[in-house]
Structures are given as structure tokens and as C-alpha cells.
Amino acid sequence: MAVTIYDVARAAGVGVGTVSRVLNKSEAVKDTTREKVLSAIDRLNYAPDPIARTMITRRTGVLGVLIPFVTRAFSVEVLRGLVNSATNSDYELVIYNVEDNEQRTKYFNLLLKRRRVDGLILFSLPPDEEATPLFVKSGLPIVLIDAYSPFFTSLVVNNMEGAYMAVNSLIQKGHRRIGFINGIVEGNFKFNQANDRLIGLHRAFGEAGIMFDPQLMMATEWDRAGGRAAALQFLNLPEPPTAIFAASDVQAIGVLEAARSLKLEVPNDLSVMGFDGVELSEIMELSTVQQPMHKMGELGIAKLLEQIESEQMSPSQIKAPELIRLDTWLVERRTTAPLRVKRTED
Amino acid sequence: MAVTIYDVARAAGVGVGTVSRVLNKSEAVKDTTREKVLSAIDRLNYAPDPIARTMITRRTGVLGVLIPFVTRAFSVEVLRGLVNSATNSDYELVIYNVEDNEQRTKYFNLLLKRRRVDGLILFSLPPDEEATPLFVKSGLPIVLIDAYSPFFTSLVVNNMEGAYMAVNSLIQKGHRRIGFINGIVEGNFKFNQANDRLIGLHRAFGEAGIMFDPQLMMATEWDRAGGRAAALQFLNLPEPPTAIFAASDVQAIGVLEAARSLKLEVPNDLSVMGFDGVELSEIMELSTVQQPMHKMGELGIAKLLEQIESEQMSPSQIKAPELIRLDTWLVERRTTAPLRVKRTED
DNA sequence: ACAACTTTCCGAAACGTTTTGGAAATAATT
DNA sequence: AATTATTTCCAAAACGTTTCGGAAAGTTGT
User: Fold this and answer.
1) Most CB contacts within 10 A, which of A90, A177, A191, B21?
2) How large is the average pLDDT for residues A38-62?
3) Residues of chain B contacting residue A274, judged by C-beta atoms under 8 Å apart
4) What does pTM read for this prediction?
5) What is the pLDDT of residue B99?
């Protein structure tokens, strides 16, 4: 039915090997025969079968992304960068949505037992002690985004520094009671980012000589409801915070909602700071710690391709995993302000 | 290197055909031998090579989605539905990001010349006169989402009705000068939704005996900047509108921004209505026409799978393309209000 | 004109499955 | 016990490429 390389060979009066060679831009084929072959290809409207090709080359032309997708606006933003870059390469991108640990191990096995992809991006999903050796043994090119492991090149944002900047800026504004809403990931994947951000907060607190009050720290889902609930709890404390720092913009929006429901004015009665720099933060004029999300996606693909290339070059000597740390920066908008001194007549 | 079906056959003391048959849950294999084979598979940790398998079955286990991705929040929301459903099927989902006509035709050719996917979802991308015959001839199962063609089962929202409801509700509130900000798609794909929405508006106008003023209609990009620019232009007219209906929530947010910059109060000085029902609309308390976005994604996959199944059942008699029309509904929030009668002393 | 290279090309082998025609084993029937 | 029908299984063929060893053609040097 479909036209094969044999048809082309016959039409051009050459052997199949020769057709294959012009297809793969190999040297060692005379210009005149190359012409013949090309014209035959054109005449027959031939396109090589990618399946048969990978059958022997063992290369699929596919990049995989494992991503807890539905969860966060942040992920979507990075995903755009990934999709963009992949489109401009010759690779296809397949998205594996992982929502729980079951799916996670399912895909881990799926992708490792047989080569379905030429490279893999693990998004917010560091492989655990069990999975790590399997991945390294497989030799599959892998890059981690928004996750860290010493065994794979990892692309992270300076979470500690970002949190430090955020909290510090709040402190500089005179705030001393600062609530922190951290994020968890459902399914209990390890998620070090959360810890790093907490550490950043502690550093800022330490430098300013502020005692950490466990009542002012809470981990919730990465959504508005989580942020809202935590904020409500904080603000109903006998000694409520005057500023709240959330580990994501979306949670911060929840804080805004909580404040509104309590008739608290932002930023006068309460400063709120987010994390991520999603488009939503701009619209809501939310102060936040900006992550270079598109860049993370693009760089992720670039590093992965680099790894795939090098794999072919020198089979054995694989480059050591890199740790790439991208900078965040503070974007102060309208939800943070200097602490207003309370007056009785106010 | 990798363990093949021959290894399993040898280990189990059977022929490869038998192994293949137990793999494919075929009948005609004695329980005792099935046991032998299964244990050998387990012992050798064997997994069949998907590539070799598609080589002969011609089925890839992959669903493709062509989508102008980066453009709209709406697309992302539907994409979630797609990814979700695909995850629960045995198919993988590959995303083809198409940003311009060049990419569009590139992928059209890529996917048609050789079978790379078992089915295709065309998102907001109706095939034109040129492409349509190629697609039908290819026999590839296809469903259109947010696009319509008589040749393929199409999943659309009742755009006309939705726009009618939106405009009508504005009219019921006393508005008579209503601006309409339509959307365009870069790359000039055909995009009938836009027209349908315009028709809905005309119908509402007609019923209310309102003259359509071309000055109050403008098509922009599907983004905030577009909405803002259009709104600014409308509002600087000698006789500005008292309500604006935008073809997407994001554009409507742009309208909100324009209003704020002109010190216009929403909804008292200006009513604004969006379209889509993206999460953002909820956060911004924007009145809007809600589309069942997740459902669109899920239904899209379901219909595609259905088509793929039926393709195998009865090779020739293919089901006629369906036109599935999903309902929208009005969600009135805080950006729409009855027209305030202007008073001089106000 | 012949040897010795170099370039160009041919076509069989290989990749790892599923499919299939028919053989072998087993069960049923006479 | 012999024949027939039914399961169960084997192994070759096929899918459409790339690779590779070696043959053919072309080039250069003597």
C-alpha cells in the first residue's frame, strides 16, 4: 500500500542502501545519483516510515515529560517553554501526566523497561532512592526541572535565596510577625523546594533576630482554597501576622480572598507576597518572587538535547550531571507596604 | 542486550508464537503452558518492545493533539481535560504546538504521509479546503474541538447561543450601547467561533431593536493587551458604550484594566462580560459565559477512541461524523450591573 | 596497460514483534 | 483401533528501515 524504500530504489535504478544514504544526508554518493534518487522520492511522494527507522536506529525522536500537570499554574507556564522549544527541535513531546504515586511508578517502569523516548524531563519529581539507580542504570538522558538530584542534571531556581529576598523585604518594611504558607504536593512526592523556601525564611528571620513562631507556618495544597484556609487561620490568631508570604502566587491569591472576607485592607492592614510570578500575579498586582518559567522550559529541553547528542558522540564518557541554578527576582507590586503603626484612634 | 521474545520462548520451552499469544491475551493456549510462559516472562523481567510491535500491527498507541497552545488560557484548560483522559486510557498523548501556518502545514504533512498517531485531535484548527480531502482520504480518525467541519466529528460550544445570552442579559439590564471585542487567531486560521459569537450578538440586538454600530466592534488578539486597546478606543468615543462584551475572559480583563486607567468604576460606570469561564474569571469576579472546558477535553478523547475502535471493528463502514454541541451558561458575577441613569449632579 | 587506491554502490542481514499455514498433540466419534 | 475433529503449538514470513562487508567503478601512479 504505502510506498517503501524499495519502490524508490527501483524507480531510481539504484539499491536501497543508496536511497537510505541520500535520505540520511550521508556522503559517498555521487551528485548525479543523488539527483536521480531525489527525483524518484519526489515523484513517488515518498516519506520514510519513522517506526521502521527507529526499529533499527533505536532512536524514537520523542522526548518525554513527566509532570504533575493539573496542579499548578506554574507548571503550565514552564510547560509552554518546553513545548515551544520542542517544536523548534526535531523532536516530538509527549506529556505523561502523573497525579499519584501509582501513576508515577507506572510511568517510571514503562519508560525504563523499553526505550520509548530518547530523553526524559522529570518535572517537580525527583526520583527517590528506589527509582534513582534504575534511572542511572538505564542510561536514559534525563534532566530534572524544579527538582534536584545529584545523579541527574537538575534545573532549579534559587528557592532559598528567593524566599530570603521575599521575607527580608517584608522585614525591611517593618514587619515582624510574618506568616508563611508553604505548599505540599499531593501524593507525597519529595519536594525539596518547599524546604528550601523555609530555610530562606529562617535565614532572614535569624538575621533580623526574629523568633520563628510555629503557629505562623502551615503547608497547604498549591491552590487558592489552601491559601485562603491557612490565611484565615493565621488571621484569627490572638496575635495575627501583619504580612503573609505564600509559596505560590495562587495560594497568595487565596490569602487576598481571606483578607477581603475579613474586611482587611491589603496592603495597609496586611502585606502579602507570593512566589512564582505567574501571569495572574501581574493581573492581581501581587508582589511576588519571579521565576524565569519559560526559560526553565527552554533550558530544560536544551540541556536534554545536549545530553542526547553527547550520548551518541562518545558512548562511554558521559558528562557529569550539572546543577543549574536560575535566579529569581523580587517584583514588588501593590500587595506589600510598610507596616502601619497601630494607633488607638485609627 | 535487551531480552527478546525469543529468550522468553527458549526459557519457557515453547515457540515465540505462543509467547506472543499469551502476551496478547489470545485464547488457544493451555493453562499449563500459559503458566510456564508467564513465569519465564516474570523471571526474565521481559517487556515487549512497543516499536517492534507497531512495526507489524501498525498501531502506535499515540494520540496527537494539534493546538495553538501558547495563545489562550482557554486552550490550557481544555488541554487538561485531554491529558487527564488520555492518562486513563492506554494511549500516550503528543502535543504538536502550532503557532503559524507554516507549522500547521508541516504537521499536517508529517501526520498524514506516515501513520505516526492512531488518532488526531484538531484543536481550534479546522482543516481548510486544501487539507480536508487529504485528511479524509488518509482515513485517520480525527475529532475537531472548538472547530467545525462537516467532514469530521466536531465538538463545539454553542457560541451563538452563548453570545446571545451574554448580550441579552446586558440588554435586559438596560444597556443599549454595547461594545463587542472579538478575537482573532494569529496566522489567520479560519476561526468560525468568532463569527458565531457576532451572529449571536446581532440576534440579541435585532430582538431588542438596537442598531449595530460598527464603531463598537473590534477584533483583537486573545490577550489582555488586545482587550485593553480596544476598550480604550471604545471608551474614548464621543458616545462611549456602557457595557462591553469580550470574546474571551482574558480580553475582558484587559477591559477592566482600561476602565481602571480611565477611573471608570466597574460595574457602575461600565459593565463588562467575558467569555470562557477560565479560573481567572472567578478570581476577578468577572461575569462571563461559561464553557465546559474540561468536559470538552474528555469528550474529545472519548469520541476519538470510539472512532479508533470502530475503525478496527468494521473496516469499511465508518460512522458518519457527528456534530456535538455543548451548552454554555451565563455566570453573572460582579462586573455586570443594571445601567445607571446618568444625572447631572452625579 | 597494469597495479594500487579511492570512491561509489549493491544487497543481504538485522532489528523484535505478530501473523499464519500447517503440523503435532489431544479428544471425540465410530 | 482407526478415523475424524479439535486444541494447541511451532516456526517461517512479513513489517520497512539502516548497516555493513565487499564488489564494481573510477582515479592515480608507474
Assistant:
1) A191
2) 94
3) none
4) 0.90
5) 83
